[in-house]
Amino acid sequence: MKAMGKSSISSVVKRLLDVAWYLGGVGLGLAPLMILYTTFWGGLPGDVRIPITFELEDDAYQIASPALGVTGAVVDDIRAYVSFPLERGGFLFVNLLILVGLLTLAMMVLWQLRQVFRTLEDGAPFVAENARRIRWVGFAMIFGEVFRATAIGFWTYYVAVRFESEQMYFGASLDFNLIAIIHGFVILVIAEVFRSGTRLEKDQSLTV
Amino acid sequence: MAIHINLDRVMLKQRISLTELADRIGITIANLSILKTNKARAIRFSTLEALCRELGCQPGDLIEHTDSAREIE
Q1: What does pLDDT average to in each consecutive run of 10 residues of chain A (208 residues)?
Q2: What does the alpha-carbon distance between residue A16 and residue A23 come to, in Å, rounded to a whole number?
Q3: How far apart are CA A121 and CA A111, in angstroms?
Q4: Do residue A206 and residue B42 have CB atoms under 8 angstroms apart?
Q5: Does A203 touch chain B (CB under 8 A)?
Q6: What per-residue confidence (pLDDT) applies to A113?
Q7: Are A151 and A177 in contact (CB under 8 A)?
Q8: In this structure, how many other beta carbons lie within 10 angstroms of the beta carbon of residue A151?
Q9: Confidence check on the interface: ipTM exceeds 0.90, yes or no
Q10: A169: which strand partners?
Q11: Residue B68's pLDDT band (cuts 50, 70, 90)
């Protein structure tokens, strides 16, 4: 299967991006209604699920491996999720705002990627707008990771302050993914490659 | 750009049309028009050789360097 043109990998990816775009659009359209509902009427049906980090007391568990001759292995930096029903209030409102923010960013990235893959499907990747779009995706990836890490920090801090459990110690954590940031910078470099490609394409098209 | 293509002048002297010249040297009319109207960014040696051959001229007859500042004066 070819990479560009009609009935290519690019066209398949373009269709998947289209589906994600429309689904995201539905979610983003429902979000204001959810915020209004939770603000004036009540909580959301079902449970809220947020990430946590915690440590266990040493005597809460025992891990050993007779085969390896290991006794007293330690579990640390445990990451999981906690689910609980939540009635309307500030925390639910902030959660919905965070989700709307992340969804909006995802929709903007999807829009740019759809345009890029449309040009790939047309077989003409080196257009000036693609460099700008890909650069935008790179910045969105970097900013998105910072935003996500901040949201995780907020959630874990909330649980650490508001929840308690015997033998479990909740902690706050940013969960900053440096690899995602590096990916963002790699995408910025790819955007520059596209810009150079566009210039070469333009020179080539005007070379007689 | 300071490089000026005098293709139209030479074509007029040789009394040859754009269509016929394009056909003889093997490039499209569109590309030849780009060259004739000074929109081209570069010219291949093979194209230059073909033009000189068909028009019976030297590269210097087709390509001229003009001083942009002097042009404005």
Answers
A1: 89 94 92 82 77 86 90 86 82 85 92 94 90 95 93 91 87 89 96 92 87
A2: 11
A3: 15
A4: yes
A5: yes
A6: 95
A7: no
A8: 21
A9: no
A10: A55
A11: low
Out of B32, B39, B47, the one facing A206 most closely (by C-beta) is B39
Query: Which residues does chain A have within 8 Å of residue B39's beta carbon, measured at their own beta carbons?
Result: 206
The number of angstroms, rounded, from the C-alpha of A187 to the middle of its chain's C-alpha atoms is: 16
| Structure-block tokens of residue A70 | 């290991």
Which two tokens mark B23?
């056909």
In this complex, which of B27, B34, B41 lies closest to A203 when CB atoms are compared?
B41
Quick check: B35 and A207 CB within 8 A?
no
**With contacts defined as CB-CB under 8 Å, which chain B residues touch A208?**
27, 31-32, 34-35, 40, 42-44, 47
Eight-state DSSP code of residue B56: T
Contacts of A203 in chain B (CB under 8 A): 41-42
Instruction: Using pLDDT thresholds of 50, 70 and 90, give the confidence band for residue B73.
Output: very low
Nearest CA in chain A to B33: A208
Angle between helices B18-25 and B29-36 (to 10 degrees): 110
- CB of B35 closer than 8 Å to CB of B43: yes
**Does the pLDDT at position B72 exceed 50?**
no
What span, in angstroms and rounded, lies between the C-alpha atoms of A53 and A171? 6
Q: What residues of A are in contact with residue B44 (Cβ under 8 Å)?
A: 207-208
Check A207 against B32: CB less than 8 A apart. no
pTM of structure: 0.75
A74 in reach of chain B (CB within 8 A): no
User: Which residues are registered as beta bridge partners of A165?
Assistant: A168
Order the strands of the A168-171 sheet from edge to edge. Answer: A78-85, A47-56, A168-171
Residue B13 has pLDDT above 70, yes or no: yes
Nearest CB partner across the interface for A206, out of B32, B40, B47:
B40
